[in-house]
Amino acid sequence: MFYIFVEAQTPTPEAPLLLWLEGGPGCSGALPFLVEQGPYRLAGLNVSTGAGGDTLVRRRRYSWDAAFHLLYVDQPLGTGFSYSSDPRDKAHNERDVSRDLLDFLHQFYAARPALANAPLFLGGESYAGHYIPPLAAAILRANAHGAAPPPPPQQRIRLQGIAVGNGYFDPGVQYSSMADYAYDNGLISAQLRDNINLFTPLCRGAARLCGLSRWDWVCKATAWACDALSFQRLTRALPNINWADIRITCAPGSRPPGVPCFYNFSAVGRYWNRPDVQAEVGVPASANITWVGCKDAEMSADFLADIGRSFSWMLPRLMDAGVRVLLYHGDKDIVCNWMGAERMLDGMRWARAAEWRDVVPVNLTVAGAAAGTVRQLGPLAFARLYEAGHIAVMDQPGAVMAIMRRFAADRPLAAAVTEPEEQGELP
Fold first, then answer.
1. Domain that holds residue 409
2. In this predicted model, what pLDDT tens digit does every residue of 239-286 receive, in sequence order?
3. N or C terminus: fewer CB in 10 A for the chain?
4. Taking Cα atoms as reference points, which of 128, 137, 207 lies closest to residue 166?
5. How many domains does the chain have?
6. 180 in helix, strand or coil?
7. What pLDDT band is residue 395 in, cutting at 50, 70 and 90?
8. In sequence order, what DSSP letters do the residues of 295-358 get, joined into one string?
9. How far apart are CA 303 and CA 210, in angstroms?
10. pLDDT digits (tens, 9 = 90+) for 47-79
11. CA distances from 207 to 93, 168, 212, 310 (A)
């Protein structure tokens, strides 16, 4: 498996390790390394048009290595620069993903024993809401039962928390929020909203059946039904609105028919496909890999049953085991919108559910400006970030950096942030 490791700027024993899993399924960790929170960025990159950015690399102002060791992994196998010549290595569900990542982590710690006692946080975005809860549970099981796969010796992994941006956890709840979100943001009429919502109970019912069934075809049907009844109807009604950021539009005819408007990362692809760059990061020329930021179509077919499954039920179990949970959402994203995530948390069954529903959002202020709102109770925190899309850290880097640092330090997230070093700003 291909990975990129970035040592913290101040590598103290207390510096936490952040394992970042990109979504998709099938999006490469090399993408957020350059686009989101890694130490370097592509100069002049325009994610609306795909222009620029393929030649010049600059130091990022808000790089998370100011606070964390960063570990990006291309997974599942077949994503980005990760490959295998054995078709049996291919992952088809979250059990496979968790097994491979747990094996990877033990080998990583064996190669870097100085990090063995570093607090571990699992981070990611979008479909990482499906990857991260099962991986966290697998880590806890391995810690409890000594289930580390050989050859590396068993080590207890110090998992402290999970943080997911604009995550996809629960199809029944989150797909059912899309029409309400689109209407509240002035994108569709009340008539279309009501018409779509007339059918969303079918999505929720299918999701419940999926959760009770052992048959993959039930969950595949759930994934298809929820997508067709909500997302596809909205993308037909709004063909040129970027489903990841409603502030961005695509020119008519700029995409093949049926392909939704999304970010354009073609410049990132041009950079990672340069032979000198691939050689520098250790990709063997013999592998003959053409880097693709996201292999959505291929991986979605492999993971279709899991796309229909909910993993939100795992969050209370993780919190009961002492794992802290942070969900943060840019509020300009349709597909994994903040309304659906908040509804999911408000309906979640856990020890402090009644208290949680009474938690009032408080303002998050960064450098004197309102950056969003935060709800926080015990091990659970939810942040809505203003003027940010599906990849919130691209749009609000200072705010996301601030809440991540505070989350890792187990501090309240909502206090005003004024110190440049807390935002991750370089001198």
1. 3-170+308-423
2. 999 999 999 998 887 777 778 889 888 889 889 999 999 999 998 888
3. C
4. 128
5. 2
6. helix
7. very high
8. -HHHHHHHTHHHHTS--TTHHHHHHHTT-EEEEEEETT-STT-HHHHHHHHHT--STTHHHHHT
9. 14
10. 877 777 656 678 888 999 999 999 999 988 888
11. 17, 14, 9, 7
Residue 384 included in any domain: yes
Instruction: Look up the pTM and report it.
Output: 0.91
Question: Do 1 and 100 form a contact (C-beta atoms < 8 A)?
Answer: yes
Active site residue 145: no
Q: pLDDT tens, 346-366?
A: 999 999 999 999 999 999 988
Taking each helix axis from N to C terminus, what angle separates 94-111 and 128-145, rounded to the nearest 10 degrees?
60
Which of 69, 106, 329, 390 is catalytic? The answer is 390
Domain with residue 138: its CATH number is 3.40.50.1820
pLDDT digits (tens, 9 = 90+) for 108-158: 999 999 898 899 999 999 999 999 999 999 999 998 876 545 434 456 899
Among the listed residues 54, 306, 333, 395, the single catalytic one is 333
CB atoms within 10 A of CB 70: 24
∠ CA 402-348-137 to the nearest 5 degrees?
70
* Known catalytic residue at 126: yes
**For the sheet containing 120-125, what is the strand order?**
3-6, 69-73, 17-21, 120-125, 159-165, 324-330, 380-385, 369-377, 362-366
The amino acid present at 89, given as its one-letter code, is: D
- What kind and span of H or E run contains 420? helix 420-423
In this structure, what are the phi and psi dihedrals at residue 94, rounded to the nearest 5 degrees?
Answer: -70, -25
Query: Does 90 share its domain with 163?
Result: yes
Distance from C-alpha of 111 to C-alpha of 6, rounded to nearest angstrom: 15
**390 carries an active-site annotation:** yes
Q: What is the pairing mode between strands 324-330 and 159-165?
A: parallel
